[in-house]
Amino acid sequence: MQLKSLLAGSAMLALLAGCASSPMEQQQEEAAAAQATYQGSLPCRNCDGIDLDVTMVGEDTSAAEERTFTLNASYRNHPQTPPDENYAGNWEVLTGTPSDPDATVYELTPDGDGQIYYFMRIDQGTLELIDPERRRFENGEMLQLKRQ
User: Fold this and answer.
1) Which listed residue, of 7, 56, 78, 121, carries a Cα 20 to 30 Å from 30's Cα?
2) What CATH number does the domain containing 119 carry?
3) Which of 46, 37, 91 is nearest to 68 (CA)?
């Protein structure tokens, strides 16, 4: 009888241990939570659109060196077939725009050469490309990226 109780107890312990997250799984879950990917297609004068893919790692409260990004831009059916643009760097959190002093703006600064991008957070799932003076463009809804 004790053997059956011991086996049953061992089985229950093994089952419970299997349900617990390992430290590695917890780190992976935290990393996934601290990473956001946004995608969208921006208008283009000479092509069918610019497909933009932005992945931001870190959180607004993370240390500056922990906030990194990658940005990939692809031109669809451009007559000059420019190469894809791929940038990586760090991002900063800025507060306020001329029309909304409480707005959250992300400044993406690539390592080395490259254009600095400014995105205003519309909501948790939407970023909108804005100009360097932190002003929204007239066709702002066409410049939005959605979180994936």
Assistant:
1) 121
2) 2.40.128.640
3) 91
Overall average pLDDT of the 49-66 stretch: 95
Q: Is the pLDDT of residue 99 over 70?
A: yes
Spatial distance between the Cα atoms of 109 and 100, rounded to a whole number of angstroms = 23
Same domain flag for 5 and 55: no
The two structure tokens encoding residue 147: 């979180």
Cα separation, 72 vs 10, whole angstroms: 51
d(CA 68, CA 5): 53
- Give me the pLDDT at residue 62, please: 93
At 118, the amino acid letter reads Y
Output the pTM of the full model: 0.76
Residue 90 and residue 142 in one domain: yes
Give yes or no: residues 46 and 59 share one domain.
yes
- In this structure, the strands spanning 104-110 and 85-95 are antiparallel
